[in-house]
């Protein structure tokens, strides 16, 4: 397409030149210039040609005069690019002293001053010279001020000063000058210091920037909203946060668990139970089965009946069996609690199950057995082998976990054969 446009343009110029030549040839005109006793007589055509020739000569002379300067500038640019490349490579490879030297030589070039100072600050901070890093950040030009702010915040976080870093980033966010990386950093740091409100504000700004992948954004969103639900000050605030979630968000097991825990802590046990029960009807989730047994001492009989009904869906779920053991322990039904906990340990040993077993034995009055269960909980948490319980423990070690097996199906509804045991 460009070739045809060029050909058409050349044809138009040729046609205009031919027409102009015939028009000027009929009457070339007469030009007389008198200046301080000098007289110049010529035709208009020659005068125009002379002006064009003089302009071309002046242009060529200027190019010749500027050629050494341009050559020097190109050479300096090539050296700067080589130093920038070498400095960034050294920074990525961990050769921080060399990176600082190479990038420091570029701070005198206006076009590279900002990036070079940022690289110097990163290299100095990486090798532990925060004073040099701060001096470099102080010299960063205004065009790179936002990037310098993020590096300064990162430096504070690495120094264990997460609170001041959050304050710095929060102020920049309020002023609208926090870049996406700073928004992500503020989201994660605010979560770490227990400020979900600030994390939520930063997350909303990060979502508007559309600079991170949907998967990462969803992960951050779940973490932030889980923290916000877990720290809701009162019932009204909790319900407002929960109702503000989309339908898809209210199906995340992490958010359901956070809401249920906080609702139960605030006395809304029925709301907590309802959300978990509805979620388990849609799709079975081990974490929610575990949380169901950790909602406190309210509605124990109703929760135990519901949990026992779930055995038809997940008969060998360690989380469900542990929750049943916990619920019957709180009800004082020690034999039934032991039965569920023994079965849970036969399926899978977890520190949580051993801890609940210890609570059960302690409530029954078996202090020795309870102490052994608590020790086993610590051992399992450290990845060590547990000690067998004495007496009835010999019987527990041979529990047949297939006794309560019913038909299990995979996510596509296809029946699964029980594993050989």
UniProtKB/TrEMBL annotation:
Pfam families: HemY_N
PROSITE patterns assigned to the protein according to its UniProt record, in alphabetical order: TPR
Transmembrane segments: 44-65
Record-level GO cellular component terms: plasma membrane
NCBIfam families associated with the record: TPR_hemY_coli
Cited function: Involved in a late step of protoheme IX synthesis.
InterPro entries associated with the record: Heme_biosyn_assoc_TPR_pro, HemY_N, TPR-like_helical_dom_sf, TPR_rpt
Main location: membrane
Sorted UniProt keywords: Cell inner membrane, Cell membrane, Membrane, Porphyrin biosynthesis, TPR repeat, Transmembrane, Transmembrane helix
Chain positions of TPR repeats: 318-351
Name this protein carries in UniProt: Enzyme of heme biosynthesis
Signal peptide coordinates: none
Protein's membrane topology: Multi-pass membrane protein
GO BP field: heme metabolic process; porphyrin-containing compound biosynthetic process
Cell inner membrane is among the record's keywords: yes
Pathway(s) annotated for this protein in UniProt: Porphyrin-containing compound metabolism; protoheme biosynthesis
